[in-house]
Amino acid sequence: MMAFAIAMPTFAQFDGSHNTKNRFNHSNVEQYYGIRLGYNLATINSSEASVDMNSYGGFAFGGVYGLQLANSTPLWLEAGLFYSEKGGKTYDFPSISTVNGTNKEYFQKKTTRLIYLQAPIVVKYAFDVADDFYVQPFLGGYLALGIGGKTKLYEDKHSYDSFDDYHRLDGGIRIGCGVEYQMIYAEAGFDFGIANINDNDFVSARNQCFFFNVGVNF
């Protein structure tokens, strides 16, 4: 009986150290893992009309790892790795055809799909607003490497590798806010591309992307 009484506090402490509520307390430095599934609404922003593109929808999924930065505050560092689809589309892309030696300009629909392997890293603060419910604003950045994608010209019925027009490396600022209830997590935010991804160095083009992700934390 005495051994059982001594062991009880140890089991109670172990059982409580992994739940969501204790993960955000100030008693221990904690960590978590998460999986995410999301939707991107992206654009390619440029001062040049022929490069500037409208919104294009794509998917994202990946995983994250979070580490509490200090045991005295619910401040967290979160890093992740994602498959992320970005790009843009336009319905008035100019093209030129030659008929009987005469050049004629016409317009057509163009879509550009850019697929990245993206690594975001952010700092977030967890506000305890109710039992097991937390609001987590975050700020940080991302780096991305282009791994695929197609550009389609619909009138010409022609497609080619999107990274014939764009650099594969991208990077920028990430800002947003997440909410968590027990293990369930959701977030919305915006990626501001800083790097010039246009293959033509005299005309700038930058990715911009609104994203919404849902998932679970362990």
Q: What is the compact description of this entry?
A:
By secondary structure, the chain is mainly β. 9% of the residues lie in helices and 66% in strands. Strand 2 and strand 3 form a beta hairpin.
Keywords:
mainly beta, disordered N terminus, eight-stranded antiparallel barrel, 11 strands, 218 residues, elongated
* Rg calc: 23 Å
Number-wise, the strands total 11
Seen as an oligomer or otherwise, the chain set is single chain
What percentage of residues falls in helices of 4 or more residues?
A: under 10%
Give the uncertain stretches in residue-range form.
1-22
Mean pLDDT: 88
Encode the helix/strand succession as letters.
Answer: HHEEEEEEEEEEE
Biggest beta-sheet profile: 8 strands, antiparallel, barrel
Structural class: mainly beta
Q: Give the spatial strand order of the biggest sheet.
A: 1-2-3-4-6-9-10-11
Strand content: over 45%
Terminal CA distance reads 35 Å
Number of helix segments? 2
Shape: elongated
Can you describe this structure?
- With 218 residues, the protein is mainly beta.
- It has 2 helices and 11 strands; from the N terminus they run ααβββββββββββ.
- Strands 1-2-3-4-6-9-10-11 form an 8-stranded antiparallel β-barrel.
- A hairpin with a 4-residue loop joins β7 (150-153) and β8.
- The longest helix has 15 residues, at 2-16.
- The radius of gyration is 23 Å and the shape is elongated.
- It starts with a helix and ends with a strand.
